[in-house]
Write a structure and sequence with these properties.
Length: 351
């Protein structure tokens, strides 16, 4: 049975006091249960965050007895939180590595694809009213903004299925800033091709969700997708996200939005991290440099991994799939031009 909060007290769990939960980001707001209008919390240490590729049960393990906190109780107990900023991404762009870089004790913590935000996406896709979605999203972000120890900021990297909700999130958090991280289209297609069948299927699932979210406005009829190859479908999904990022950057402006492509990031990760720390207004930090352990470790599988290793993987993929990718690139660039979608985003992060 889960633990339940009753009148501000946790029944059946040993904590020093209630502030252990209300004010400590180590009590991760892991899930949102729409039927009960409640958050499920579980304790996840800093080291556990670093060890987990994503904040999912697959990597954290199942929590059989989460603390169940009604959303009303959460709102009533909400303390002054840390600054909250975002890494929004288009997938296959070293976003997990980048988020790991924000593990800077005393300054910030990076949260990698918390399932809580996926639950809000699901709530929206099941037809919840826009006002209800926005309210629950705001409360979920408040829960994620609880700091680790004396950190001053939390940097959240949501799953890219969250991107359609990004404009609402930035409206709900007017002091939050974001980095829009994307792989150039050619690199994105190389990633899809080299990852094989499961990734091609994932791109179709992604596009299905984007269509449901109403962010695919490229002039295609529904039947057109049946006549498109896997890599064309991948390119359509990339273009939809690129248009969304372009619109966000233009509407929100350079003061809050910076853009970054994966090739600039992986070529100079330390400089990119330092620039991002500055963009988020977090001041300087000695660990925000190329020596950060996140930049020498494979973000998905662990073990040593360098920029040269990444480049070698892509060269092999180019040899195997170059002809297909070249043809799709020509097609996708024509679609982008017709839809006025820039392949390079403005407001580039300066470093």
């Amino acid at each position: 049975m889960p633990f339940t909060v009753i009148n501000g007290k946790v029944e059946g769990v040993m904590v020093r006091n209630n502030s252990d939960i209300w004010n400590d980001g180590a009590w991760l707001a892991h899930r949102y249960d729409a039927s009960a209008d409640a958050f499920h919390l579980r304790q996840v240490s800093r080291s556990a965050h670093n060890a987990a590729t994503f904040l999912t049960d697959e990597y954290l393990g199942m929590e059989p007895r989460p603390i169940v906190l009604s959303r009303r109780e959460a709102k009533a107990r909400n303390a002054e939180n840390a600054d909250l900023h975002f890494i929004l991404h288009s997938a296959f762009c070293a976003s997990t590595m980048f988020a790991n870089g924000f593990d800077l004790p005393g300054l910030s913590m990076g949260l990698k694809e918390p399932v809580l935000l996926n639950d809000i996406v699901g709530f929206r896709r099941r037809g919840a009213p826009q006002v209800a979605v926005a309210e629950r999203l705001g409360d979920a972000l408040d829960m994620l903004a609880r700091p680790f120890g004396d950190d001053s900021a939390v940097v959240v990297k949501p799953s890219n299925i969250f991107n359609a909700l990004a404009p609402t999130a930035l409206t709900k958090r007017p002091t939050s800033k974001a980095i829009l991280l994307y792989a150039p289209l050619s690199v994105f297609l190389l990633s899809v091709a080299r990852k094989g069948l499961w990734c091609r299927l994932w791109c179709r699932e992604l596009l299905e969700g984007q269509i449901a979210d109403g962010i695919v406005e490229l002039g295609f009829e529904p039947s057109d997708y049946f006549r498109q190859t896997d890599l064309q479908i991948a390119a359509v999904g990339w273009l939809a996200q690129q248009k969304l990022f372009h619109d966000i950057a233009r509407k929100v402006g350079a003061e809050r939005i910076a853009t970054l492509d994966s090739e600039r990031l992986t070529s100079n990760p330390g400089e990119a991290l330092a620039a991002a720390v500055s963009h988020f207004g977090l001041g300087g930090h000695a660990a925000a440099n190329a020596a950060h352990p996140a930049f020498a470790t494979h973000s998905k599988f662990g073990g040593s991994f360098r920029t040269e290793d990444r480049r070698a993987e892509y060269e092999l993929a180019q040899m195997a799939h170059g002809d297909e990718i070249e043809k799709v690139l020509i097609w996708a660039e024509a679609v982008a031009q017709s839809a006025n979608i820039p392949l390079t985003l403005e407001h580039a992060l300066r470093f």
